[in-house]
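Re-run with default settings, no changes from the original entry. Doing this only to confirm the output is reproducible before filing.
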Amino acid sequence: MQTATLAASESGNQTILISPTGSGKTLAYLLPLLLTLNPDSQKVQAIVVAPSRELVQQIEQVWRSMSTGFKVGTCFGGRPSNAEKKALLVPPSLLVATPGRLQDHIERGNFDLTDIHTIILDEFDKSLEMGFLPQMEAIISRIPSLRTRVLTSATDAVKIPAFVGLDKPVRLDFSEKNNELKGLTIKTVRAADNDKFNLLYNLVCYIGNDPALVFCNQRDQVEKASAYLSSRHVANEFFHGGLEQPDRERALSKFRNGSCTLFVSTDLASRGLDIPEIKHVIHLDPPVRLDEFIHRNGRTARMDASGNAFFLLAASEELPDFVQPTPERLVLPAKPAQPPVPEWTTLYVGKGKKDKISKSDLVGFMFKKGELAQTDLGRVEVKEYYSFVAVRSHCVHALLRKVENQRIKNLKTKIEISD
């Protein structure tokens, strides 16, 4: 896919890339973009528009990992726009942004548009689903010298509006043919009554500590399911678009580092999130459309891996018509065992990138001041204003005693268990 995208960029300036989540398409469009950037320009030269904050941050991380020498900047909701305006005073070569926040900066004249030659609309179909069409039209209409247009999508079912300006683009289709994932097993689990939360609990006990995504159709259902699992002493995190940015980052970090293996979410988690390989997808609420079904299931059985998708059905509930053939039925044990407690606990550290704190600073601090063994330190994530550190659960309380009142790079900071 990446080789084909490079070849397409050499033959023309318009590309449509259809590829499932987790297939490497971010690098596929960033590689040819890199070849077009001018090191002598002091203005923004390319824009990537993505539908979610998390995807914006993920694209930024991929670009930084490439060590291109070209500055990247990000703009997205959920944080102060004035800080972004100040950062744009020294314009990045590449700007990655959500549609609404990008439109706002453009309309306020916060950066020069005259050198922008490339726009990439990542997860374009998702942006349309989320209602960002007016913002994307406004953005494209304001850029005077666009030469290159790239659209990426997970499905081939989207009608591309005329304002995008595509004319006979190169089309690259790397989607799963016939909507099938080779390693995916789909099963139904039916309740004896209409209590699907208890059914969910029994299924979670059955699958144990394998990473699992639980999908709901509405935000309130997400929170109710999460609260029910917590009441049954099952470690989990929940996620939806109504959460504040710190809460979204905390939930994702805890899931990524293994502090919980169960993640309850709306369809926002079906694409664009940097999360590990998932063993199980659980449809607590059945997806409304076929494409939602495909995107959710695409979180498991990637590449050559195997995975399971479970439909939880109340006694009176039927499968959607598009689920064919009818999956086999799983009968759960009558008395399930409580799932194991996660091996990791997440610590919150009240300093981040803005305080010149790096990952290596935190690792060194945990080893030296916290006296952790190397095997007792897990994933470390440094955000703008704070950080998250995974530590073996049995080491946490001793470590907190040792680092109390200690300074990181001569900075006093809060270190505590992340709620």
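The chain has 13 helices and 20 strands. Residues 2-175 form a domain with the Rossmann fold fold (CATH 3.40.50.300).
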